[in-house]
Design a protein that fits this description.
Layout: E1 7-12, H1 18-27, E2 32-36, H2 39-47, E3 51-54, E4 69-74, H3 84-97, E5 102-106, H4 127-140, E6 146-152, E7 154-156, E8 170-172, E9 180-182, H5 183-196, E10 202-205, H6 213-223, E11 230-232, H7 245-250, H8 259-263, H9 266-269
Parallel strand pairs: 1-2, 1-4, 2-3, 4-5, 5-6, 6-10, 7-9, 8-11
Helix pairs in contact: 1-5, 3-4
Protein name: NAD(P)-dependent oxidoreductase
GO cellular component, one term: cytoplasm
Domain NAD-dependent epimerase/dehydratase: 13-205
Length: 271
């Protein structure tokens, strides 16, 4: 017999972030369902014990969703769809119709202008940030009982080693702050927000230690045996993006507060 909510948590986009999040939720005893971009990927995950449906995020999404869930996490980047804010708004409509009560939208720190603080209103200066902010607003205005936003900084971790990000390039901005956050911390923050987040919560997630780009990226590239980047003038402003409010308000603790700690742990890099 079908219950009111067949699953406790749904995840739209079971990729680099969504799949580890699904596994963490399953490990915590939650009933989880995910979406992926193709029937082939859905079948593969089904064979691994993860309930999955093919679903492409788009403004013309058909009704209804193929599942019902109490909580829904959206972690599909804007590059995956043509009109991202409209696609997210349409997903919100379908989720509400399917009985979803709590939505967690994974945004990005690109909604901030350089030097902005977490207590200000975001004022993006690039097109990607504008799309992300418009999608945030679609989630927050959709009518969920609880709408949550998490804004990770640059993502790194398994298959995303910072040593590859700028290897071999010549570019300016060596004095700019590095704003990174590890996959482990993003997954942990998602779990915490689903458990303790309050309607309207929107938090940055950015590791507390911010080296300069000219410090971190040449070092990280050499660790992989790659040509280090070369930085030229202008060096740029040191304007770190802080992610401390989630610590102060929800008690979050970064597992990887300094990317250098991860570099020094080969076992962690092979996870």
């Amino acid at each position: 017999m079908t219950t009111e909510h067949e699953y406790q948590t749904g995840i739209v986009g079971a990729g680099w972030l969504g799949l580890p999040l699904a596994k963490a939720l399953q490990g915590a005893g939650k009933r989880v369902v995910v979406t992926v971009s193709s029937a082939e990927k859905a079948a593969r995950l089904q064979s691994e014990g993860i309930t999955a449906f093919p679903l492409l995020l788009a403004s013309e999404l058909a009704e209804p969703l193929p599942f019902r869930c109490r909580d829904l996490v959206v972690c599909v980047p804007p590059s995956k769809t043509e009109d991202y804010p409209a696609a997210v708004a349409r997903l919100c409509q379908l989720a509400l119709a399917a009985g979803t009560q709590r939505m967690l939208f994974i945004s990005a720190t690109s909604v901030w202008a350089t030097g902005q603080g977490e207590e200000e209103m975001p004022t993006p200066v690039h097109a990607r940030g504008e799309r992300m902010l418009a999608a945030e607003q679609a989630v927050q205005g959709a009518g969920f009982a609880c709408a949550l936003v998490l804004r990770p900084a640059g993502l790194y971790g398994p298959a995303r080693h910072p040593g590859r990000f700028l290897a071999g390039k010549t570019l300016a901005g060596g004095g700019q702050a590095v704003n990174l956050v590890h996959l482990d911390d993003v997954v942990a923050a998602c779990l915490l927000m689903l458990e303790q987040g309050l309607d309207g919560d929107a938090y940055n997630l950015s590791a507390p230690v911010h080296p300069r780009r000219e410090q971190l990226y040449p070092f990280a590239s050499r660790l992989l045996g790659l040509a280090p980047p070369v930085f030229t003038e202008p060096s740029g402003d040191f304007a770190p993006i802080e992610g401390l409010q989630i610590c102060l308000r929800l008690g979050f603790v970064y597992r990887w507060p300094d990317p250098a700690h991860w570099f020094a742990d080969p076992a962690a890099q092979s996870d």
